[in-house]
Design a protein that fits this description.
alpha/beta, TIM Barrel, 5-stranded antiparallel β-sheet, 30% helix, 2 domains, 30% strand, globular, 8-stranded parallel β-barrel, single chain
Length: 339
């Protein structure tokens, strides 16, 4: 068999793309910047030198009828000098809906000031800043105004990026295209977050297929964010009441306090305290787990749908409970799909 035919066969088998300039990254989504030594080793082994670090959230406080920064980043340990930081700010869509134009102007100034303050704390001068907001058709004008103001108020010359959900890709004519330099295609959280749903709201192959074909025609170059996390939905009397982050079926299988209702559903038999949350008898748990196999499936599905040959591959997110469940080879397989 000829060498050319072997190469072609390898390409067809893997379904991966060639001649791409990619960068391996993780999101860091905790309020305390403290990376376990073993995770620092893992980052180095995976050739990860970029972290998208959540600096703070902006949420709407009802009893004060105002927007406030919450979950501001604090640092317990210093990052390695070879780690590039891309600040991320999550903005609750309710904030955008409730602010008038004057409030949008004021928020931009406050966000810019706080971004610079945290940069100083980290001794980093970022080359990119990302804004994360699941805006809608009704909030697009004010949100896009905020993005335009940030470019001016932040002062430093940086690349601006915004997260883009799959529905915003498919329906770009109604939701609009944000005035930024790059988009981060969020290839997760694509379903209905409900204890009654029979699909996984984090990633569902069939649901993704209804949207992903529109990515190539999107007018912003995409980076790609992929899930490696899991959560469980705690419901009481048929209504979801909270999310239990990084709780998988392993937490319940064989536990005498829970009865198995299926592979991904469990019923509480007696009161149980799980990571600070009281679970009461009769409460139901729906596990939405992203296994290494499922994350790899997501990567393969989106690998040839991107509209750029130069992009960051970002896994959500760097957490020791996740890196203990995944092998280094699992992460390597995900990254290799985009070569």
């Amino acid at each position: 068999m000829s060498r050319t035919l072997l190469i072609l066969l390898a390409f067809l088998i893997t379904g991966c793309s060639n001649n791409r300039n990619t960068n391996h990254c993780f999101y860091y989504w905790k309020s305390d910047l403290n990376i376990a030594p073993s995770d620092s080793v893992l980052l180095n082994d995976l050739d990860v030198h970029t972290l998208y670090v959540r600096y703070f959230d902006v949420r709407w406080i009802e009893n004060q009828q105002s927007a406030f920064p919450v979950a501001k980043l604090s640092t317990t340990s210093k990052l390695a000098s070879n780690i590039e930081v891309i600040p991320v700010v999550y903005i609750e869509n309710k904030v955008i809906k409730n602010l008038d134009s004057k409030g949008i102007d004021s928020l931009s100034i406050k966000m810019s000031t706080l971004l610079h303050s945290i940069n100083t704390t980290l001794s980093k001068k970022p080359r990119q800043v990302q804004i994360d907001c699941d805006w809608t058709e009704s909030s697009r004008t004010k949100y896009f105004d905020l993005l335009s103001h940030l470019k001016s108020d932040y002062k430093d010359n940086v690349v601006w990026s915004a997260t883009i959900r799959l529905h915003q890709v498919k329906y770009k004519r109604t939701t609009g295209v944000p005035p930024v330099d790059r988009g981060m295609l969020m290839f997760y959280n694509m379903g209905v977050l409900s204890p009654l749903s029979t699909t996984n709201s984090i990633y569902d192959n069939q649901n993704a297929a209804n949207y992903i074909e529109y990515a190539k025609s999107y007018p912003l170059p995409f980076d790609i964010a992929l899930p490696v996390f899991s959560w469980s939905i705690l419901s009481r009397n048929g209504k979801g009441i909270t999310l239990l982050n990084e709780i998988t079926a392993a937490n319940f299988k064989g536990n005498p306090s829970f009865a198995e209702k299926g592979d991904d559903r469990f019923i509480c038999r007696k009161e149980y305290l799980l990571h600070g949350t009281f679970i009461l008898p009769g409460d139901e748990i729906k596990v939405e787990d992203i296994s290494p196999e499922l994350s790899l499936k997501a990567a393969k599905q989106v690998a040839d749908k991107l509209n750029s040959d130069t992009f960051n591959i970002v896994l959500y997110h760097l957490d020791h409970s996740i890196t203990q469940r995944y092998e280094k080879a699992d992460f390597q397989n995900i990254f290799s799909c985009f070569k």
